[in-house]
Amino acid sequence: MRATLVLLLLLVLPAAASALDAPAAAQTVFRLDVAFDVPRSMVSGTVTVPLAEGAGLLLRTGTLTVRGVRRNGKETTAAVKDGVLSVPRGEGGILEVRYEGLFPASLPAGGRNYGVASSTIDRRGISLTGLWHPRPEGLAVWKLTAMLPPEYEAVSEADTIRREQNASGTLFSFDFPHPVEGLTLVATDRYEVTRDRHGNVELYAYFFREDRDLAKVYLRSVKKYLELYERLLTPYPYKQFVVVENFLSTGYSLPTFTLLGQDVVRLPFITETSLGHEVLHQWFGCSVYTDDSRGNWAEGLTTYLADHWYEEQSGKGWEYRKQLLVNYAAYVNEDNEFPLREFRSRTDFASRAIGYGKSALVFHLLRTQAGDGRFFTALRDFITAGQFRPASWDDLERSFARAAGRDLAAFFKEWVDGTGLPEIGIESAAVRRKADRFEITLGLTRGNCSLPLTLHVDVSFLRGGAKRESVTLDADRKTVTLLVDEEPSTATIDGDYDVARMPLSDELPPVIARIAGAEEPVIVLPVKDRDRYAAVIADFVEKGGVEREAADLRDEEVRTSSLVILGSDNPAIKRLFAKVETPSEGFSITMRKNPWNDEGVAAVIHASSPAETGAAFEKIFHYGKYSSLAFEKGRNVSKRIDPSERGIIVLLREEPAVIDLGALRRFSSLVEGVSDKKIVYIGEYHDRFSHHNVQLQLLKALHARDRSIALGMEMFQRPFQGTLDEYIAGTIDEREFLRRSEYFKRWGFDYNLYKPILDYCRSEKVRVVALNIRREIIDKVAKGGMDSLSDEERKDLPREMDFSNEDYRRRIREAFGQHRDPGERNFDFFLQAQVLWDETMAESVSQYLDGHPGGRMAVIAGGGHVVYGDGIPKRAYRRNGLPYTIVLNDGSIEPGIADYLIFPPELEGMTAPKLLATFKEAGQRLVINDFVHESPAKAAGLKAGDALIAMDGVPVSTVQEVKLALYYKHKGDTLLMTVARKRFLLGEKVMTVEVKL
Asked: Which residues neighbour 160 within 8 Å (Cβ) at sequence distance 6 or greater?
């Protein structure tokens, strides 16, 4: 299993006690006398216990060796099977069990074994925390004596410790009158003991000599925590408390003391965090024991009143609760979920998220519902009733019910016996005037919960200030209304995370916990230096990960999985994010949201050598809350958490935009403002002559200042650059240009809209750059995603693509919803097509300017490709870093939408006439399919089914040829259309019809 310091700090384990099988066992006193042969790593001892007449006994011995059993001084028969010693029934009297145990070092010096019981006897000392002596099931009172070498100091569960020097060494006697499940013993000759006092409680610090200066710091902190918890709860349950430094990397709280590894003790923040957690365990787990047969409640309660409490006192309680929910969402799924009542101890990240995290959140719910007074009254009652015996969730329920004065069975059934967390959402929001106030209507949803939930709603106002309201969500769908005095801006639901609920995707930052808890992540293998990542690959494969070469990664896998992308030069990075910055040296992990999967993440891992991976990789899982980490030779040098939403946020009203009419500028000032930019993007509505007129005027003005300027056009596709060049150079005429560029097939808008711009470029020899990718590829991706492309088609794709812009994604989704029958289309494919479109145009812009250093470009494209810079501009800037400006025709007045907005007056223009007919291909012919109302073709006598042969004597067989012929006609002209019409039994008739356009 993986061990971690972070887990140790948060998840220290108290000594747990099993349910009491026989009530009398707690009254039976077991005597344990032990001695040690430290060089041989051996303990030898005797367990002495009185037995009643006719009684037998079962003792757990584990791997211990039983050397003999005597009853009233006589050897008796006893059998050891499967680690259990069975003493048969017999006469009453004294039973003695002699045993030995070997406990060599289980880990090398400095090895880590956080949170895992490990018993060791070696030259460093004695640390016995597991089954190191025979013990019965359940609780018993123990009297321990230990013979140790002369210079040793020793600690065990005790209210008092007595030392007696003799010729054999030092005899330690530990007085502890309370029942426990088993004993712990820690001893070494390295201790220096520091003493202090808190009221009637003796305080000790057993620290190694080299760490003696830390002792007083720890004891001061212990007094602070004892004072806190005695004020909140009850008096400290024992006569002494000891902080013990251990040579093993342990982190335990046991009755009367805490046992912390040396590497932990030396961390500067422990006294402000984990030490308080250990002290609180003296109440919960170490004096009121957990009844593991009915659930371990102590870890969640201790986490809530220690780790969480300290954050709450500094105003960061909401952050801690949010992190618990993020961890739950990352690690827990339907396969590893279980009720709180089934939690026994932390065995993995999922059990931790439930037994510590969810449990702490349940106690927060109890506290917020009951109020502080009743909450702490209930805990005092629980402690008083349950001290020195096992307690369960049922005992907690009774104490809280008494304090609340009502039945809490439904609450505990929902939260302790149920699984999962509630899912809260918002499906509608509206604001309206109501007299002199504003009425807010929110449509809320609730899932996976049958109890009413109290939700805080924080309303912020446009003019500043905020107000908190509370609503009760007691149905799976509920509409709530709020009345406020000021005009509202936003409503934030549960922004303090007072409700244990599943966070929405916007609330989940991309953090390491999410890749650690991912089910069957896809491991995208590095293109080179695979040995650097061998440990990473092996670890994720063990977790169920699937290996993929970058070239074999399919869209479907990206859409349904989380990704582990290995190597900063991995092609998957360019495919999804374009670029991810990583340090060139050392080891790093950078988390990003999976842009194709709202529920998934992508981890980009880079290492400069196998040694760097070996020194750092195992550590990253202990930094689960972070979005990026960097290590050098195993030492963490940077860490970051990416921002995410706080609460469920809905925008209600925006402050209206205001234009200062006194600041309005004329076209000439616009030219001055953009003339120093390398790239000028001019957005358009494709069918408006006024927009294209502005584009032409701005191009002319820019060209007058810089004769080398080029024009990039969305309307032409890259394979036809040669045709564009020939036309601008004057080597082919317009008709040939339109035919060879396939303009009417690939763009579709009337060429008259763009003709003046192309005419100017031809006359002035302005270079025109085709920006777009082939339409066939866009259409194919929109229907079947990039997986549908052939290897040959993939060669046309841009070298890098960024899908991670969430604002861009939101606007594309809005556009997708406005298309006809969006339900029949796939949004992921639609998004891929749009990104492919924009990335190709951005690449075309950048490639041209790379090839023309010092050059400039004006770019004309649809407004959707330039607004907010998210389409082409930022993607080109990512490639070349060149300054740009955005000019938008008739855009919305919104901050950041563009640098300049132009509102040109309407302008009429000449357009080509239309036949108002639709066509379909039938074999090698173009057949009339149908007519639009008032079609001149239909008025001339043409019929559906007629096969088109020629127009004005020129053969036609494609829609593009029809449009080309119409382009050179004017409204009112006569068009001769030659068609072939099928006749019943008479064969086909060829006829020419005059069509008045």
From this structure: 174, 175, 239, 240
Query: What are the tens digits of pLDDT across the range 346-375?
Result: 999 999 999 999 999 999 999 999 999 999
Query: Residue 833 class from Cβ within 10 Å (0-12 exposed, 13-18 middle, 19+ buried)?
Result: buried
Token reading at 723: 């045709």
For residues 583-617, b (16+ Cβ closer than 10 Å) or e, as one string? beebbbbbbbbbbbbeebbbbbbbbbeeebbebbb
Cα separation of 767 and 429, whole Å? 51
Residues 6 or more apart in contact with residue 677 via CB below 8 angstroms:
856, 883, 884, 885
Per the CB < 8 A criterion, the answer to whether 408 and 375 are in contact is no
Report d(CA 142, CA 124) in Å as an integer: 26
* Residue with the larger pLDDT of the pair 110 and 156: 156
User: What's the token pair of residue 467?
Assistant: 């107000």
Non-local (6+) Cβ contacts of 398 within 8 A are none
Question: In the 8-state DSSP scheme, what is residue 773?
Answer: P
**Which pLDDT score is estimated for 820?**
55
Torsion angle in degrees (nearest 10) through CA of 325, 330, 334, 338: -50
Helix, strand, coil percentages for the chain (3-state, nearest 5): 35, 30, 35
pLDDT at 823: 54
What pTM was estimated for this model as a whole? 0.87
Mean pLDDT for the chain? 92
Q: Name all domains of the chain by residue range, CATH numbers in brackets.
A: 5-41+103-280 (3.30.2010.30), 288-416 (1.10.390.10), 423-505 (2.60.40.1840), 516-640 (3.30.379), 679-710+765-902 (3.40.50), 917-996 (2.30.42.10)
Task: Give the C-alpha separation, 328 to 701, whole Å.
Answer: 60
Task: Return the residue matching tokens 């007696």.
Answer: 164
- Spatial distance between the Cα atoms of 725 and 730, rounded to a whole number of angstroms: 9
pLDDT for res 821: 58
- Cβ burial 73-97 (10 Å sphere, 16+ → b, else e): eeeeebebeeeebebeebeeeebbb
Q: Which 3 state secondary structure label does DSSP give 719?
A: helix
- Of 923 and 644, more confident: 644
- pLDDT above 60 for 10: no
* Spatial separation of the C-alpha atoms in residues 209 and 191, rounded to whole Å: 6
Distance CA 204, CA 900 (A): 72
227 pLDDT exceeds 70? yes
Buried b (16+ CB within 10 A) or exposed e, 730-765: eebeeeebbbebbbbebbeebbebbbebbeebbeee
